[in-house]
Amino acid sequence: MMDGNRRWALKNKIESFLGHKNGVKSAEIAVNFCLDNNIKILSLYTLSIENLKRSEEEKKYLFNLLIEENQKNLEYYISKGVKVRFVGDRSLFPINLVDVINQIEFKTHHLDKLQLNLLFCYGSRQEILSAAKLMAQDFKDGKISLDNITIDNFTDFFWPGNLPDPELVIRTGGEFRVSNFMLYQLAYSELYFIEKLWPELTYEDFKEALKWFSLRKRRFGA
User: Fold this and answer.
1) Active-site residue flag, 64
2) How does 32-47 read in b/e, with b if 16+ C-beta sit within 10 Å?
3) Which of 89, 92, 134, 119 is nearest to 181 (CA)?
């Protein structure tokens, strides 16, 4: 959960939008860390549905930055085996970005070294409501019975499809909340909070988070 870009910019007395630009560097560090440590899935909370309330100027900057950086890194993703998926409410995706998003996903869909999920126009409450509506429609159409509705197949209707639940959630910026991030999926996730703002994170910070996670005793309620 990449929090603190704008606060980092304020702290460094630069234009607030530039905090997002510097946050990209931490995202690249996170990708490389996962590749180095054989971590198969990385989900980055890039833009929430609530973030769409921000100014048109900032949203335009964020949209363009997301696409520019992923286009720039596309060849790197391919060379390293990174599959890129944009996860969120696609009806809210800016029209001018849809073709680029589809292209990035198509060119990396066969790769399996790391799956990079970019949560974009995403909100977990909205995702759960959408899944409930889709399952209700399948029930109405006779495609599924009440007996066939389970915890496992409910998540098949989620925007990412049936992804494994996140094992470790890292929240930066000194905040202690989950902010509508994968609420259903993180029932047994380990939550790691760090005071540093997202653009300040280093490779060593991710190493410390992984070390902390390795010492956790995951009982899953047992």
Assistant:
1) no
2) ebbeeeebebbbbbbb
3) 119
The three-state secondary structure class of 138 is helix
For the chain, list residues with pLDDT below 70. none
Alpha-carbon distance 175 to 121, whole Å?
Answer: 21
pLDDT in tens, 67-86: 888 889 999 999 999 999 99
Q: Is 22 a catalytic residue?
A: no
Maximum distance among all Cα pairs of the chain, rounded to whole angstroms:
59
Contact between residue 202 and residue 33 where contact means Cβ atoms under 8 Å apart:
no
**Alpha-helix runs per DSSP H in the chain:** 5-11, 18-36, 56-72, 74-80, 95-108, 124-140, 151-154, 203-214
This model's pTM is above 0.85: yes
Yes or no: is domain 5-123+170-212 CATH 3.40.1180.10? yes
Cα(62)–Cα(46) distance, rounded to whole angstroms?
Answer: 9
Angle CA 67–73–75, to nearest 5? 125
Helix (H, G, I), strand (E, B) or coil at 120: strand
Query: What's the CA gap between 89 and 79, in Å, rounded?
Result: 29
Answer yes or no: are the C-beta atoms of 88 and 158 closer than 8 Å: no
Sign of CA dihedral 61, 177, 25, 160: negative
Give the pLDDT confidence of 173-197 residue by residue, as tens digits: 999 999 999 999 999 999 999 999 9
Among 22, 32, 51, 180, which one carries the catalytic annotation? 51
